[in-house]
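So, could you explain the following?
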Amino acid sequence: MLAKVGAAVVAGVLVLTGALAGLAGSLQSESGCAVAAGPVVDLDDEQAASARVIVAVGQQRDVPARGLLIALMTAMQESGLRNLDYGDRDSLGLFQQRPSMGWGTPEQVREPAYAAAAFFGGPSSPTGNRGLLDVDGWEAMALTEAAQAVQRSAFPDAYAKWEAGARAWLADILDDPAAAASAGCAPASESARVAIAAAEQWLGTPYAWGGGDLNGPTLGFGSGAGTVGFDCSGLTRYAWAQAGVLLPRTSRDQWNAPGVRVTTMAQLQPGDLVFFAHDLGDPSTIFHVAMSLGGDAMIEAPQTGDVVKIEQRVSQSSYWAPKFIGGLRLSGSS
């Protein structure tokens, strides 16, 4: 049985690598981004080949980097970036597309380049179904909302947890640093990836004022009495402790931790601490800290009654943007 499974995996990698080779030969030289076979950070060979096919297909169709990011997040949630021959009901392939719903024949949706082209849609779509480029205003949507507009999943928020990883994969795939930067894809450092992963494993955990220590969520006190969870600085302190960086307990003390000050949201990189204050000229009025995921997103424990979550489009938020006092790239985070 193990030999049969191993052979299936190898066959899947060969199919994906062949698809990638064909696509690489047809990519327009003016695209500015050469996509070649090879490893991708944090992905195995099969996943890396899948990711490179998706990016190559998107580049053929002049899909902007934000669209490539959405496609990678979607495929990771739907199939683990694997060309599956099974799924819910008749769902198949990288994007778990259903032949019975008009996405193509079973053979077509299991052809990686076809599946990616169908997901992107647009004028050159191989199917009549609505793809990403056919969704009005997709460029301004939160990434997970844009994915859901195509997939119509029973779990519409599930795509968000792959955002940080997808940014790292895209940055690794794109040879053009400017293209990677346009999607907020500055690659995370190894320690930042550890800290982000540590925080993300607690998505959905209740906010508890005073909650959280170096080992995880704890019983809060004051307004958090009776609730096991994290407050904002408890979450960031826990996450960075897993990467070997010890922070003070409160958001105001974390502002003064050793590191490099980041003055604009556009400069934030994955893992940077993000601070908010009532008076932008007075750090003693800081009331909240979160951790940047890059690309205008952050993970946070927001307030009583809420849960640990990912906040999208922070720079466009009428609440958060006016209160941004600065960020901090921690010493020891590179």
Observations:
- The chain has two domains: 2-182, 190-330.
- The chain has a mean pLDDT of 85.
- The radius of gyration is 21 Å.
